[in-house]
Amino acid sequence: MERVLRPYILGGVIGDVVNVFSPTIEMHVTYSNRLVFNAQEFSPSLVINRPRVQIQGGDFRTFYTLVMTDPDVPNPSDPYLREHLHWIVTDIPGTTDATFGRELVRYESPTPYIGIHRFVFVLFQQRHRGSASNIPDSRDRFNTRNFADNNDLDSPVAVNFFNAQRPTAPRRRY
């Protein structure tokens, strides 16, 4: 189990976003045909459009909620707005993808301004369809754990994350 959780521990996802969890479902996140692997770096230009998120496992009678956050806002050394919410999709049937769910909070593309940010996808199993329906008041200072508690969601069943940073501007030669 420790080997499976190692990227989340080393990346600070366990602690900053979620508690220790036991992954029981496979979740595949893809941007423009590029599969996201934990701690992989993506340029902000590649993640403008919402990704394809596929759930492998469970069945059509089991529903999931997907949350995407940035725990490093406004910058990783002083994340006082932790977490910033980027996306919530609920009622995703097992063995399908997020397009079959209900978008509770519209996808907001990652735009890190300072430093390298982590963008975390957390998948929760719902107790029943429609159980996750509380829309957060703000995208800033979102808390994944509180959202799960307020919507009667258990521990995460899958987590994935990538890193992104603002591209450096080309330097002018004089």
TrEMBL record:
Pfam families, A to Z: PBP (PF01161)
UniProt-listed CDD domains: PEBP_euk
Matches recorded under PROSITE patterns: PBP
Family according to the record: Belongs to the phosphatidylethanolamine-binding protein family.
PANTHER family: PHOSPHATIDYLETHANOLAMINE-BINDING PROTEIN, PROTEIN TERMINAL FLOWER 1
Protein's name according to its UniProt entry: Terminal flower 1-like
